[in-house]
Amino acid sequence: MRETGPLVHCLTNSVVRQITADVLLASGAAPAMVDHPDEAGDFAAIASGVLVNVGNPTAEQVEGMHAAIASAREAGTPWVLDPVAVGGLVLRTRLSTEWLESGPAAIRANASETIALAGTGAGGRGVDSTEEVAAAAPAARDLSARSGAVVAVTGPRDLVVTHHDGLERATWVESGHPLLQKVIGTGCALGALTAAYLGAARAAGADDHDAVVAAHAHAGAAGTVAGRTSAGPGSFAVAWLDALYTLTPEDIAGLVTVTTE
Amino acid sequence: MRETGPLVHCLTNSVVRQITADVLLASGAAPAMVDHPDEAGDFAAIASGVLVNVGNPTAEQVEGMHAAIASAREAGTPWVLDPVAVGGLVLRTRLSTEWLESGPAAIRANASETIALAGTGAGGRGVDSTEEVAAAAPAARDLSARSGAVVAVTGPRDLVVTHHDGLERATWVESGHPLLQKVIGTGCALGALTAAYLGAARAAGADDHDAVVAAHAHAGAAGTVAGRTSAGPGSFAVAWLDALYTLTPEDIAGLVTVTTE
Amino acid sequence: MRETGPLVHCLTNSVVRQITADVLLASGAAPAMVDHPDEAGDFAAIASGVLVNVGNPTAEQVEGMHAAIASAREAGTPWVLDPVAVGGLVLRTRLSTEWLESGPAAIRANASETIALAGTGAGGRGVDSTEEVAAAAPAARDLSARSGAVVAVTGPRDLVVTHHDGLERATWVESGHPLLQKVIGTGCALGALTAAYLGAARAAGADDHDAVVAAHAHAGAAGTVAGRTSAGPGSFAVAWLDALYTLTPEDIAGLVTVTTE
Hints:
3 copies of one chain form a homotrimer. In chain A, 49% of the residues lie in helices and 18% in strands. Chain A is of the alpha/beta class. Chain A has one domain (7-260): 3-Layer(aba) Sandwich (UDP-N-acetylmuramoyl-L-alanine:D-glutamate ligase), CATH 3.40.1190. Chain A starts with 6 loop residues before the first strand and ends with a strand.
């Protein structure tokens, strides 16, 4: 990832743009937020990966998202869908459901969002998940089958599922720290990091599923390290960015337990 | 507050969304920024509290604010008005004045904004206050009487005033640190924290005035603690978030001087 | 600068608004983000300096930018153009080119953006520069001649050029730290700091070119200090804000090498 320095085009919510960009920079990628409908299509065509995060969208940004997705699809750029708070809110639920048909390379969500997007549950009350990751496994398989995407369900343990075109893989990633839930944007930034790893993997001819696992391992391992020295969510966020920057692939491998079902 | 984990719907300015969310998470609340007019009304109805902060609004967000306020009012959700920089700027002054009629549970402002909103002064030059808190006491009483809200005037010492329907209370909260003025969004985040405390208080059958005092005490006490170890505004912001997370109610009581007039 | 406390009106991209405001506060200025077309013109007239940063604009914000620039020009308020990622993206390239005619006091850009705006290169791939600062010197001179602005090209060494109305100055500022590239918004915030220093300089009857040099020296010196103690981009950003706040003019002079060609 660091060698490629993938350019990640983020169409994401206004709450987390700064930390998303900082996470990408710390991890060796190059962030660019380009939301305007007149620019988003052109930019998605030259980016290495695209993130579409539907948290707190504006009407104009939604137009930019449509343009970016169409352009990414045409250019073969991998794009990631982060269906923030789908289920309870009408606009983002409609958009996310519609975009399942547009060939996302990956979907990153918490358990509640995964279940809501698959249409098998009632949805959460917002950005925090009221469901266990394991309970979302059938919904993740279903979403993967319908969309062709790798589906990552983020939680205390992350589950990465590929279940389409004869592929069947389910990988658990165990790492992280509870304070990740107390810093805004750690999950949203992980969606962007997933787009970065997918961009790097495609350039190297590597596998999408492995790229999504690697992104979650990187973020989780950095969380584990940050948790050791932090006194609360403020110092945790700082240490997490530092660890994202300093951890080597070997460090990450030693900090994360990856289990394949 | 931590037991309830109130869900706070924030319609706030784009400069402070990240720190506002981080402050709510550190304090035990759950933040959600939902600005789109198609979603804001639905969300305000299920939230525990709503913040409407008029700093740097967009036309679309203003529509969302109208929807959220109407919905909060109908659902009985307490909502907080933060009239950032009213007085000097036409749009936000018109909106804030209009919304005084819409039953805010609390108004949080600095002294200049309080005086400007009450229509008794010339207004400040922006987000910093050019007036002393004590000078804003008559304006705060007037605003409380007209709107039915608890009015909090934030400054070196905070003044919380309730003056309507036969209630007459004025409470001074002494805490904090000068570096709070050197970190963007500490005041705006306090508006969101006020909405969180109001949501928790309503759920527990407690008093609005006490909830507003408690929010200011929590933020101020964390500021006092952060000021002890920080070398400037960068490290202060980090330590403030840590302290918001770690301070117990007993810690806060020991760090703040509360005086009732 | 600290004595004047210039009020800086920032119309900037949504990714960097928080860090931009924090940098201004830490440096002794007062930030205000006012983007709405109904307010931006009025505010630019009372501000000490205005920043127009075209990264990730919205249609509504572009209207606000037009109003602010017209108003700044009429009021004699110095305004700074930061042409983020011009060259590759159509909207911002058109706007930035058009605004060269509107009398910016300064232009702050990286080498790729400088070359692209001058129309002499192919542009970069986004916010990071693919060109050396020295290679942008002719483009900087050309831009200064055409616009009347002081042109600052930011990079490992910063180049500040004035080349119009018989003035010919080129100053190199050597300071900073590589981690400045790994924290989002350090360059954009420097654009705002440039507007602050210009506002203070105009109030004191001092020179625009010297003000732009001073802004770059302040940011760079703080970067040098922050680099000494940080373990990665997270702790670097914190230490940078602390250093912006604590460094005296004498400290800065001792940390920066300024060379006049």
